[in-house]
Amino acid sequence: MSNMSFSFSDLIAGYVTDFDSSKGDFGTFALKTSDGRKFQVALTSMTYAELVRNLDEPYFDCTRQISSMLVPNCYLFVYGIFYPEAGEYKFEAKHIVFLGRTENEYLFEKPDWWVKQIQSLANFYLKAQFEDGEIDYRKYRTGIGLVGSKENSNRQETDTISRLVYGFATAYMMTGDDRYLEAAEKGTEYLREHMRFLDEGEGICYWYHAVDVKPDSSKQKIFSSEFGDDYDAIPAYEQIYALAGPTQTYRVTGDPRIMKDIELTINLFNKHFLDKTDKGGFFSHIDPITLSPYSETLGHNRAKKNWNSIGDHAPAYLINLWLATGEEEYANFLEYTFDTIEKRFPDYDHSPFIQERFYEDWSHDTTWGWQQNRAVVGHNLKIAWNLMRMNHLKPKEKYIALAEKIAEIMPAIGSDQQRGGWYDVVERLLKPGQEVHRFVWHNRKAWWQQEQAILAYLILTGSLDKPEYQRHAREAAGFYNTWFLDYAGGGVYFNVLADGLPYLLGTERGKGSHSMSGYHSFELAYLACVYTNLLITKQPMDLYFKPKPGGFKDNILRVAPDILPPGSVQIGNVWINGQKYSDFDASSLTVKLPSTQDELKIRVRLLPTQMSFDATLLEVTNGTANISLTGSLDASAVGHFQEVLVKATEKPVKRLVLLLQDLQCITTAGLRALIFTKQKLGPNVDIYIVGAPDNVKQFLQMSGFYEGITVLDQYETVEMASL
């Protein structure tokens, strides 16, 4: 193949090393890929450039700024054409995507990037499933097309409803939008009413594979799986993911009925999937009639164990269950699954990938179905990500060792180090003469595997603070946010080609299928926000809850966003129904709920423990913006303060209320920010200072800032002062 002599288009991702405006017709820059290879990229008269943008954001052209933005260490994507000339290929750029305005800016690290993305995703699925009308799950269908249209099918799969419920519950936690919680609660109720099988005699609960809605609106229940290699069995992963949505809803509401379903489904796992011999682990399938993993009717699934039956418990529901309850029973369950993974899954004497399928005695099953002796790249990354979470709960050196080994091995064999992004399924072993692990079907890239890479390297960065991990996290997040977001149709693409262009054939064309619903993209938005803000960039984050009266044990609401490094996060403020509330334990991340039958909407502001200042936009209503300031408003805090001000005044306001009860001090740099704010708002905006401590009051008085503003001791008197 040394005589390749045709032009072709492709993508390069890399870091700018230098730019020469005098070279070529329009300038040339050098680009170094993630693995250190260099390309010369020529600009042309038709080269155009843009900034990476979020869902629902407009195109931002920066073509005229190309030459000034091509600075050393700027990471970017450039799509262009390779031309064969003089025995080599010359690359000319057609399309450049910058990830920020400077070499140090990554727009997806802004505090609200992922919040805005999850809002857009939730709105997309509300419209697709319920036409933006009444939330009625009788309308729900598993198959959703590219632009959100329902496919010609009457099937409602349990797992896809549960995954979408997870998405809506998570979107509520991040935004406080009541419509999202309504969708989560109604979806959970629909699952309980139509997909749940209660066996009170055995004390277990299991979930139907699906229901088919008939023309007369009656329902045909589908008990055992009708999907591919799981046909006529009850696979563990379907029972696991049936809990994903209800458990996340439970985190928000504490509904005891949901908790009962979870407990009974865990009974199912322990009674019928758990290998109670000294071999341990969970079987991957059981027979739908006998509930036995040994039934001959299971065929190639008889007495087998796999990644899903062991590893999916933690991310799908079990970590969230522990976060909501703090129960040692669930911590021990988590420890059991991770000890099993660490002991049984590595196979580094034979392959750089973990092993995923096993016989009953843990010998390797290399002949099963589509997988054979093949590796799913994302499962390796998923193990690294979840091992770090578990290590924060029950620290073990072996957890960190395996997570770091995976993190160090995987980029060279699982990622695309020229174009960016992460691959799907590859052969676990190299054949004689091969240097690259072969793709099983294609070199496309799936949305969910990008999630695993982003979250793995983000939590490794936040936990171990190694620059190499942050580089991989940024590269993965850059690829996902540049190429997977569907700006025209909404939502995210299932697959893109190696060069980032969307792949739109078959079931991979749509936004809803057996494999895709509202889980991975929502989970990514949530946890990328948690890890980035609270562990890496040290920014605050708000979470919302709506507990039912008496729902949570001892009236204790647990608000830990994830299993993070101990002591890394604390509660800054709590508001109940818009009013500040003080009965919380900042370090243990718990709120003591008031004993009442009234509806409670809880807003919790979480802070990195190293953070010394916070500005919280409480609300903007009737032309009044209320901002609470905490800590020390000094030079390092001015940027964050101004970002919140911009958000508060996106629409014209008549009144700015600054709540300073928790402001410990203000420096001259902070004071200049206040004076500048007052000037920019102009004379038609009234400014109120409420509850300032004496030292802050005195400093503001000495500066002359009090002139032309209203100073009050109590927030409630603001409305009175305006009458």
UniProtKB/TrEMBL annotation:
It comes from Nostoc edaphicum CCNP1411. It holds the Pfam family GlcNAc_2-epim. Residues 614-723 form the STAS domain. This is AGE family epimerase/isomerase. It comes from the Bacteria. Keywords: Isomerase, Plasmid. GO terms for biological process: carbohydrate metabolic process. InterPro entries: 6-hairpin_glycosidase_sf, 6hp_glycosidase-like_sf, AGE/CE, AGE_dom, Ssp411, STAS_dom, STAS_dom_sf. GO terms for molecular function: isomerase activity.
